[in-house]
Design brief:
The chain is α+β, with helices and mostly antiparallel strands. It contains five helices and four strands; from the N terminus they run H-H-E-H-E-E-H-E-H. The protein has two domains: 61 residues, Ribosomal Protein S5, domain 2, CATH 3.30.230; 79 residues, Alpha-Beta Plaits (2-Layer Sandwich). Helix content is 40%, strand content 23%. Strands 2-3-1-4 form a four-stranded antiparallel β-sheet, covered by helices on one side. A hairpin with a 2-residue loop joins strand 2 and strand 3. The mean pLDDT is 86.
Length: 169
């Protein structure tokens, strides 16, 4: 039918939606590229107030978002690693353990260059690991490439960790 919500409460609903989008209903990270349509609702002329509509907007968005089967994206970087030839296999093994996709290998200035796409989360301790593997004889560069879907098992792990942290609060 529509028109059951007074227009003065629409900004409160939008505020509640935006709050939940910023906080993120799945993993605590913000939701993006979302379209929301408010098509109907209920209100009471005496008991309805702005805070109740704000909370209703937050809760409705959380429930609808979870039921929409959303996917988590992660930043993926183009990584170039310059290594001596004698430790190339060890460095390749380490990269593959970090969910890297090897794009190619070439020789440059006496070093082997490995080009790969690696999720940013996996690069947190890479400098230390690379130095350890090569004895400090290598270097690497990183450049943002794109956002990619997180593998299903990693997404499940993230959702479980976020749910546990929220239940403790």
């Amino acid at each position: 039918m529509g028109g059951a919500i007074d227009s003065r409460f629409i900004p409160a609903i939008v505020k509640g939606l935006m709050d939940r989008m910023e906080q993120g209903p799945l993993t605590g990270s913000y939701a993006r590229d979302v379209r929301v349509c408010i098509y109907d609702g209920k209100m009471h002329p005496v008991d309805s107030n702005e805070i109740s509509f704000r909370l209703a907007g937050r809760n409705a968005f959380s429930e609808a978002f979870r039921n929409a089967n959303p996917k988590v994206l992660e930043p993926v970087y183009d990584v170039e690693v310059f290594v001596p030839a004698d430790v190339m296999g060890d460095v390749m093994s380490d990269l593959q353990g970090r969910r890297a996709i090897i794009m190619g290998m070439t020789s440059e200035n006496g070093f082997e260059k490995i080009s790969a796409k690696v999720p940013l989360k996996e690069m947190s301790s890479y400098s230390t690991a690379l130095s350890s593997i090569t004895g400090g004889r290598s270097s690497f560069t990183m450049k943002f490439a794109s956002y990619e879907l997180v593998p299903g098992d990693v997404q499940e792990k993230l959702l479980k960790e976020y749910a546990e942290s929220n239940s403790e609060e």
